[in-house]
Amino acid sequence: MPPQDPARSRILQGARQHFLAHGFRGVSMDDLAAELAMSKKTLYSRFRTKQSLLEAVIDEQFRLVNEDLERILAAPRSDFPDTLQEILACIQGHTNEVKPPFLKDIRQEAPQTFQRLETLRRALIGRHFGELMRRGRAAGFIRKDIPAEISIEILLASVQAIVNPARMEELNLTVKGGFALITKVVLEGAIVPREKVGQKD
């Protein structure tokens, strides 16, 4: 299939907007075709099942997040706190698109896909935050008595434990709110205050 297939892109964009905001259990492929004013033949020629469309939506979401994070890390800047804030704002912006019904539907209806989502999230956080922590330590902003790998593992474990439908409902949190609190607690505990950067331990 051509990489720039307008019909496929339109389907993916429409499904992404609907699934992330409202979940996917309540909408059929026929419903989606009608919503997009598209023939079912066109829809099914690009995605044979709703499961394959769901997988494509997840891949697209992570592609967009990864693309934005790589752009931020590639930008020439020397101030670690500014880079950290931009990274956090980027992730919080993307996670705010993912509403609880989407995660709940995946966990209940497609557990293997939910596990794949967790694996992708773990890889993305580990890669980008690992690079950020490495730079922060080199610049003197990250405490040397806390291994960067441990901070990342704590961050990952916290996200997995809290940013899931059941716990968010219990704690009355949104995806964005849960992630913001986790990163604040984990990262601010590891960061050297700005006024102390450069001082000897």
Question: How would you characterize this protein structure?
Answer:
22% of the residues are buried. This protein has a domain of 140 residues: Tetracycline Repressor, domain 2 (Orthogonal Bundle), CATH 1.10.357.10. By secondary structure, it is mostly helical. The mean pLDDT is 84.
Largest sheet: none
Spell out the helices and strands N to C. Answer: HHHHHHHHHH
Rounded radius of gyration (Å): 19 Å
Shape: elongated
- Count up the helices: 10
If you average the pLDDT, what whole number results? 84
Low-pLDDT residue intervals, each spanning 5 or more residues:
none
Give the CATH superfamily of the domain at 57-196. Answer: Tetracycline Repressor, domain 2
Distance between the termini: 58 Å
The CATH architecture classification of the domain at 57-196 is Orthogonal Bundle
- CATH fold-level assignment of the domain at 57-196: Tetracycline Repressor, domain 2
Q: What class do helices, strands and sheet pairing give?
A: mainly alpha
The CATH class of the domain at 57-196 is: Mainly Alpha
Helix content: over 70%
Strand content: under 5%
User: Based on DSSP secondary structure assignment, what is the total number of beta strands?
Assistant: 0
